[in-house]
Design a protein that fits this description.
By secondary structure, this protein is an alpha+beta fold. It is built from three helices and six strands; from the N terminus they run αββααββββ. The longest helix has 12 residues. The chain is globular. The termini are far apart.
Length: about 140
């Protein structure tokens, strides 16, 4: 091996690998636009964020349950972190407050997830306020 090849090999060995972050599916499952014109995707995601997170962890299984609050006004704003609130109602069971949390930025706060240039993370989670899982009737 030539001295240049050895030097190149040694330098490459000391290079720090780029961390790609955890795997998550960026495919958009649902879309909504709020009254301020923000286009907010609900991405398939994974167990930590997006559709795959809240369908399992919080039992919200319909795009309409996410999109209805998103089509209303912002209820809480903290920079690129936005919350929207809405209600799911049923004559027999009453109603529950839905909370949808959105990250309207390319990356999550911890920078682990990146939606890519020109895209936003979108819906992080959706849940029924005050309970670990929404009742089954919300998905009817």
């Amino acid at each position: 091996m030539t001295p240049i090849a050895v030097a190149a090999l040694l330098l490459a060995g000391f290079a720090t690998p780029v961390h790609a972050g955890p795997y998550w599916e960026k495919t958009v499952k649902c879309n909504a636009t709020d009254p301020d014109g923000r286009k907010i995707p609900t991405r398939v995601g994974n167990g930590e964020l997006g559709w795959n997170h809240f369908t399992g962890a919080h039992n919200i299984r319909k795009c309409a349950l996410v999109n209805i609050p998103l089509q209303g006004n912002v209820d809480k704003l903290d920079g690129a972190n936005i919350q929207y609130w809405g209600w799911a109602s049923n004559r027999a069971h009453g109603r529950v407050k839905l909370i949808v949390k959105v990250r309207y930025a390319r990356k999550t706060v911890d920078k682990r997830y990146d939606a890519g240039p020109g895209n936003v993370i979108g819906v992080i989670t959706a849940y029924c306020n005050g309970m670990p899982k929404c009742p089954n009737w919300v998905n009817e």
